[in-house]
Amino acid sequence: TEHVSSNIEEGAQCCVYIRGVKVVDLWTDVEGYNHDSIQNLFSSTKVLTSLVVAMLADQGHLNYNQKVSELWPEYGTHGKEDTTIAMVMRHEAGLARFDRPIDAAELSADRIRNGSISEVVARQVPAHSPGTERHYHSVTRGFIVNEIVRRADPAGRTIGEFLRQEIAGPLGLSDQLVLGLPCDLQAKDLVAENVWWTWWQLARPRCLGGGHVPCSSKKMRAALVVALPFPVSYTHLTLPTKRIV
Question: CB atoms < 10 A from the CB of 206, how many?
């Protein structure tokens, strides 16, 4: 409530279960946002992708100490030959960022299935010898793991398909827990925004229709207003990395 009242957050949800019993169910009831609004989980999706990999390992379709190249031969180039699935899961693959911009048009389900991202990953040279350093693979790990899952799963399913059929579906959450948003849910209440919308919201006060991008300090807001239009493009994914210790 403090973040909402101070405009740091506009829409937020918090739902907590203990041993299958819902004990907390809170949300901000503002225009265009409520308890049923779709919320991006960002890095929390790594929990879901890790669960999918664990289930495939439990079923005997992959092994954490297995080399990625055993499942994905094209991956075993440029020093990545001995990278194991465990290294990828621990953010030790040396591929914490893409070495070239990725156009948003390449991120559709069909394009990914046809190798738009896997080809980029397979050609890439790791930033360090895999397994020797740990850097947070904020954007890249999901695409790498998706290709591992797709090749390990006997049905050839993507992470999103596996999640829907094996986890979300049985739990009755098919329309709430998804990786790769279906078109019917996109039409529900999501609007794609670009970098200029974000800049406009940062630059204009709320009384003039801005202020819809939360920012915890005036200095940070000013810095983003100055820097955002130049080095950042929301149609490309080239993000800095974080060292994990």
Answer: 10
